[in-house]
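Following up on my earlier message about DAU. Here are the inputs again, as you asked, copied directly from the submission form:
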Amino acid sequence: MKILVTGGAGFIGSNFLNYMVPKYQQHLFVNLDALTYAGNLENLKSIEAAGNYVFVKGSINDQPLMNKIFVDHQIDRVVHFAAESHVDRSITGPAVFVETNVLGTQVLLDSARQHWLEAKKLKNHRFLHVSTDEVFGSLGATGYFSETTPYAPNSPYSASKASSDMLVRAYHHTFGLDICITNCSNNYGPYQFPEKLIPLMIANAIDRKDLPIYGDGKNVRDWLYVLDHCKAIEKVLFEGRSGETYCIGGNNEQQNIQIIDLLCGMIDEKLGRSGEQVTERLKKYVTDRKGHDKRYAIDATKIKRELGWEPETNFAEGIRKTVDWYMGNQDWVNRLRDGVYQEYYEKQYGLVGKRVSGQTSE
Ligand code: NAD
Ligand code: DAU
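Thanks, got it. Here's what our run produced:
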């Protein structure tokens, strides 16, 4: 098979390629990435010389380029990760979220449709759209999101992902494209950009910077180790039923404050901090995120029942691996924080979204 992976230089995409390329040497993986602030080829060092791996720099919004990739590489399957992914940035600058997540997905779907349906290259095709549990909105104290939960996105990010899910669904119903959609909960692990909660807290704790806690810190997320998400995508790509949606989650609900306290203790232990020096003292309650969803939690019964997938990494093990990775790769973090992101936004979109780290304190 020839598999087009979009956004393969980002957090989940690079973990996916680092896992799949050595495992499936009979398949070709074409990584198409625009290398925005979030895309980093350093993440892919271990596979860059592999014979079954090709990198193309470009945007999913570029229709002629997308058409060329489908024809040149005779693409059979797409795993579509490419997106703007950070909720805070969607609040300070929503336009690029619509451009990339909605319009870019439609451009990619059109290339797939032209190549697979109009040119009758039907054999083996599949468009796997990687989406999020945020499309379902926010839960109260009880209950779970599942494949039948109505969509109720609350942020510009989740609204753009919900729109892209709807387009993917429509290309299946209108044109007969073979599609699957996955809606996954919060991922954590190596190579996550240090703007997201876990890597931001680790990096700030190491550097003795404030640990910004939005609101009361009691919002709940369902955390999944990134490699487990990659293995779920592998299952859906090869064994999922056409036209179906699969919810993916870690069965691992944590309040933000529980995670932050856990990380503070781990960093203290690793760096031998005690007394006045303890990391906990860096905690700072800041203004809440606008429209902050209270709780996400996934019921992943369907993917377990149909495809035999369930998470393999428990939180204690996953968070230990993650902290170890960030402590061993501080240069990686520092290079990102040194301004790649600002340069990109300044060039492309003016000064939108200038923060690297979380909300500034009040
Ligand atoms: P990320 O921000 O780390 O990576 C996004 C990648 O997409 C980057 O490499 C970036 O360069 C690339 N990209 C952006 N615009 C592009 C364009 N126009 N053309 C080509 N490439 C472009 O994101 P992530 O956290 O790895 O998320 C990947 C996907 O998974 C996203 O679609 C996201 O919505 C979804 N998702 C993420 C999580 C999570 O917890 N991180 C959970 C569920 C679903
Ligand atoms: O649920 C899946 C989604 O998870 C993905 O679709 C998104 O791409 C991904 O970014 C993530 O979204 P969240 O908004 O849940 O993740 P984030 O790491 O930004 O925030 C996690 C929680 O931590 C959230 O309740 C906000 C809070 N937070 C975050 C930051 C960055 C803080 O309290 N302080 C912070 O500095």
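One observation from looking it over: The domain at 2-189+224-249+298-313+340-348 is CATH 3.40.50.720 (Rossmann fold). Hope that helps, and feel free to reply on this thread.
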